[in-house]
Design goal:
rod-shaped; 230 residues; mainly alpha
Length: 230
């Protein structure tokens, strides 16, 4: 490869690694935001709710470091560094595909976990202040009531519902004012909406990775040819 072509490939690899580095930073920040949001509902989602955002943060950190190493390898024209960088990119792509499949497969399991935990905690609403606050905050924030609908509370509150089930906090006098949507669906949708945003970022990162792999392979080839000539 001519010297001008080598410089072009180096520039492209450096440029895409800067983008890659920023994507890693974005995943770290996004994962932290999602983890913070889910921490309020960990009693309902269990460990499954925190697994995805934690994994996203870890992958983002790896991408962040890998992007920096890729820039260094491109600038130094180190065959070993660029080869290592390429292998890491391929491994990350496989992990991301696996994460996407796992998220799709485990979505039903997460919904079942949420429903089960909600049914169990509803029984403690009257006698446990922490559980009461947990349910009140969730019902106000997500505008939902009960596990499946507001009638779920009738069994535990003598045909009434918590005031947190209404905008006007007058549910006990008129249950018809209660939110229609059940909290299991509202929380699951909240989970999916946030993950969908992260998934969009991950797809963008994957496209950058593919371009990075192609540029890295071109640079490795040119470096190898240069060594053979020498």
């Amino acid at each position: 490869m001519a010297e001008g072509g080598m410089k072009l490939v180096k520039f492209m690899l450096f440029f895409f690694n800067v983008i890659f580095w920023l994507c890693g930073l974005g995943l770290i920040i996004g994962g932290c935001v999602v983890l913070k949001g889910y921490s309020d509902y960990v009693d309902f989602t269990g460990d499954m709710g925190n697994t995805v955002p934690i994994f996203i943060i870890v992958v983002g950190a790896i991408i962040f470091i890998t992007g920096f190493c890729g820039c260094c390898g491109a600038m130094k024209e180190s065959y070993c560094m660029v080869a290592t960088y390429t292998c890491i990119l391929v491994i990350l792509l496989i992990i991301e595909i696996g994460l996407g499949i796992a998220g799709f497969v485990e979505s039903d399991a997460l919904q079942d976990q949420i429903e089960k935990n909600m049914e169990n905690t509803m029984q403690k609403y009257e006698g446990d202040d922490a559980t009461k606050k947990l349910w009140d905050d969730m019902q106000q924030n997500l505008e939902c009531c009960g596990t499946y609908n507001y009638t779920d509370w009738f069994e535990y509150l003598d045909d009434s519902v918590p005031n947190s089930c209404c905008d006007d906090e007058n549910c006990k006098n008129d249950v018809e004012n209660a939110y229609d949507e059940g909290c299991s669906k509202a929380l699951f949708d909240y989970f999916n909406d946030n993950i969908a945003i992260i998934a969009g970022v991950a797809i963008g990162v994957a496209l950058v990775q593919l371009i990075g792999v192609m540029c890295a392979c071109c640079l490795m080839r040119s470096i190898k040819n240069e060594y053979e000539v020498v």
